[in-house]
Each structure stands twice: as C-alpha cells, then as structure tokens.
Specification:
alpha+beta, 60s Ribosomal Protein L30, Chain: A, 5 helices, 15% strand
C-alpha cells in the first residue's frame, strides 16, 4: 500500500531532526516560538485537542489534523504519537501545501 506524500515528508523531517513529538514538548516549543506547524492525530482526546488549539491560536501557529496516532507515530519512526511539531519553516510550508 502506497503511503501519502505527507507521510514520507514527515519521516524525512524526523530523520533531519526538525520535529518535536509529544504533547508537553510541543507545547514547550510553541511557547518558545520554535514551532511553525503542529500536526495532531484525529483520535486525540478532546482535552488535548483543545489545549493545543488554544496554544496555537494564542501563539499564531498553524494547526492541522491528520491520520490516527498509530500512523502519525510510524511516519516518524516511533511508537504512537498524538502530536508532532515541525520546527523548520521549509518543512512546515511543504507539509502545509500537501495537507
């Protein structure tokens, strides 16, 4: 089965160390204004989703929803992940154009 293009690009960004994953690390990076794009799994809990939406709105960071936590985690070569933050502007722009 062929994976979507964003899936491969997210894996490339992970190998280039241009991602942060996990709710607390992403929120900390948003506060430091290091994140350009936040990708949240569709099956994230309501409280996690609301917390991330509020942070992204306050700090003016783009938020997108994609896949489920298993697919998001496997895209970056890790176990299930609910949220991923892109800390490189080039990767963020390309992912936004695909998503």
């Amino acid at each position: 089965m062929k994976q979507p293009q964003w899936y491969s690009l997210l894996g490339l960004a992970a190998r280039a160390r241009k991602l942060v994953s996990g709710e607390e690390l992403v929120i900390k990076s948003i506060r430091k204004k290091e994140v350009y794009l936040v990708i949240v799994a569709n099956d994230a809990s309501e409280s996690t989703t609301k917390k991330l939406q509020d942070k992204c709105n306050f700090y003016n960071v783009t938020l997108k929803f994609a896949a489920d936590r298993g697919q998001l985690g496997s895209a970056i070569g890790k176990h299930e992940r609910v949220v991923v933050g892109v800390i490189d502007q080039g990767f963020a722009q390309k992912l936004l154009s695909i998503l």
